[in-house]
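Working notes for the structural subgroup meeting. M.R. asked for a predicted model of this chain before we commit to crystallization trials. I am recording the input and output together here so anyone reviewing the notebook later can reproduce the run.

Input as submitted:
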Amino acid sequence: MTLTLGMITTDTTDAEALAGWWAEQTGAQIAETNDGWFVIVRGGTLPVWMAFQKVDGVTPGKNRLHLDLTASGDLDDEVERLLGAGATLVARRGDENFRWVTLADPQGNEFCVSGAHGGGTS
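Returned structure, recorded in token form:
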């Protein structure tokens, strides 16, 4: 038997708002809303579906699973776009050989963005 990744699900206190934010950032669309308790995003640059599941409280601590995204253009430009859209900067990492930036979405879920070929411009 073989497993295939079909969807990445994030717990959130506001599934519709967070799904909308991620849909906008990836050029995807909200495909299902299920009365706001389970929202599915697909299309755009996403290779799999993303889902956002409404929970009563935010999970404490650092998320144990996170997205590693690749900027199709300049890393710094993409990071600035995401910051302008409501992400927050956690840390800039790496060196001249490979750079990535750790950000958090509007609900504090961390994700990383790297350049298309292991780093952007300095």
